[in-house]
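Minutes, project check-in
Item: structure for the 77-residue chain
Input as provided by the requester:
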Amino acid sequence: MTTYVNTYPSFRQFIVDAQTMLPIKIETYTLDILAEEPEFVLDHELTEYFSMPDLSPKSFDELAQKMLTDESLALNY
């Protein structure tokens, strides 16, 4: 959960392969505290949100390299 003032509470769920224990999905859920019946809902899945092929170290390195030249991408992170 986050304690930031200007954002809704959120958490991330890491889904791993049962045999290898490697991550296969990272999902972010947010809570709209102003809703009549607040509930956590899926906000985004990391690979889809950042157009990554997978969660490998290589994919994260490529994402980081893109962030060096793409400010809007970096701000989304």
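Outcome recorded: The mean pLDDT is 90.
No further action items on this chain.
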